[in-house]
Design brief:
2 domains, about 250 residues, alpha+beta
Length: about 250
């Protein structure tokens, strides 16, 4: 039995997220599993490093699947490129040890979020960024990024309901870069709660326009109350850039 690691890129705008949903063929996982079934004749479930929401994109999602197939990796890659829709691309395949698990072995992830920050919206970037015409105070947002970095209980920055699992995560880096009219926010951490990046982004933007202060971050950490943080920004600006393994 082979254990194959996949590195996947996708444009999420047509899909209801990563995770397979019943009989729906509008998920990334479902599309890929259907092609693997055609390729191998086996009914296989792929294991993703984590879920991405409807409309979210990926440049470096990772998954693995087990198969008895004797096809070479190049033959499999060619099959994926021929039969997957053009907005889902398997970039790389690797044979891995039997115990490799895309989710359990992941040590961290990098996400990025794009903001189109100009008075006039973009016809081309509308599916890959959030439109924010207001002036954004970069210095204040960078101060807020410093407060978000480190190990904290991020319950107030998540869409989780009640959970017995830990909501403590470590954010090692948050960076803001301007590329023309695009502001790109990059988040690196050991893991992220449900909608955590999108809620942190909403909070940073509220600080950027003056609706919240940098000091409000301390209060959100202290109370863990979701409603004190910013809005959940739209999914189309979010990209899963990379999953880290040892």
């Amino acid at each position: 039995m082979r254990n194959i690691k996949m590195t996947i890129e996708y444009d999420g705008k047509r899909y209801q997220g990563w995770q397979r949903l019943g009989d729906s063929d509008k998920t990334i996982q479902g599309k890929i599993e259907n092609i693997i079934h055609q390729m191998t004749g086996e009914k296989i479930e792929i294991i993703g490093s984590g879920r991405t929401d409807a409309g979210t994109h990926a440049k470096g999602q990772v998954a693995n699947f087990k198969t008895e197939s004797t096809m070479s990796l190049d033959e499999m890659l060619d099959f994926f490129h021929q039969y997957l829709p053009q907005d889902i691309v398997v970039k790389q395949l690797d044979d891995m040890p039997e115990r490799f698990h895309a989710r359990y072995n992941a040590k961290g992830k990098q996400y990025s979020y794009n903001v189109w920050n100009h008075r006039i919206p973009s016809a081309f970037y509308k599916n890959y960024s959030m439109y924010v015409p207001e002036y954004l105070n970069i210095e204040k947002m960078e101060e807020a990024c410093e407060k978000l970095k480190g190990t904290h209980d991020f319950r107030g920055f998540s869409a989780l309901k009640k959970t017995k699992k830990s909501t403590t995560r470590t954010i090692s880096d948050i960076a803001i870069q301007r590329h023309g009219d695009i502001l790109q926010f990059t988040f690196v951490g050991d893991g992220f709660l449900h909608k955590m990046v999108r809620i942190m982004m909403g909070t940073l933007l509220d600080i950027g326009v003056g609706r919240l202060s940098v000091e409000d971050i301390d209060g959100i950490f202290e109370t863990g109350i979701r409603s004190q943080a910013g809005d959940t920004v739209p999914s189309q600006g979010l990209f899963l850039d990379e999953v880290f393994y040892k």
